[in-house]
Amino acid sequence: MNPRIYEANLENFAHIRALISKSARILQSQYYKQAEIETALELVRGIEELIAAGSFLVAEYEKKIIGCGGWAIDVSEPQKAEIRGFFVHPDFARRGVATLLLATCENKCLQRGIQALYLTATLSGEPFYKKGGFSEFGRFKQCLSNGESFELVKMAKEIQRVNA
């Protein structure tokens, strides 16, 4: 399998939202209660702004969007960027899609002079980001609108250009 990675556009948005919902509901079910997952989907926002900024990517395979993710440059510290909106279709989980998306994001960030990345991971995403070189620097419980709480992990990573 060799997915095509490209910058998302607003025409992709409905497919991206459907992917995010399916991915969260299935891949997070081992870590969170269903009520937590459903309400936590409210926390996934700002994708349209990332698309408009040209900093949101999709992975496509056989004309279907199977993964997505992007970054937002930190306004107060422009040498840092936040990794955002990483989701993979459950049928393609653990097949390298997220790894390819993250590597592409890192390369694009390096081209823009970014030296460090940070993110807020779900419990289901934490092992993936650790494998990708991110280190935990905090945990917290996000209060949700239905009264549930959703445990999340703050992580960061320094990045640098590798000269071959």
Topology:
Blueprint lengths: L3 E4 L5 H15 L6 H7 L6 H7 L2 E6 L2 E10 L6 E9 L8 H15 L4 E7 L3 H6 L3 E9 L5 E10 L6
Parallel strand pairs: 4-5
Antiparallel strand pairs: 1-2, 2-3, 3-4, 5-7, 6-7
Estimated share of beta-strand residues: 25-35%
Estimated helix fraction: 25-40%
Q: Mean of residue pLDDT?
A: 94
Q: What is the string of SSEs from the N terminus onward?
A: EHHHEEEHEHEE
Distance between the termini: 27 Å
* Uncertain parts: none
The largest sheet is:
7 strands, mixed
Strand order of the largest sheet: 1-2-3-4-5-7-6
Would you count the extended β strands for me? 7
SSE class: alpha+beta
* Broad shape: globular
How many individual helices? 5
Based on CA atoms alone, the radius of gyration comes out at 15 Å
Overview in brief:
This protein has 5 helices and 7 strands.
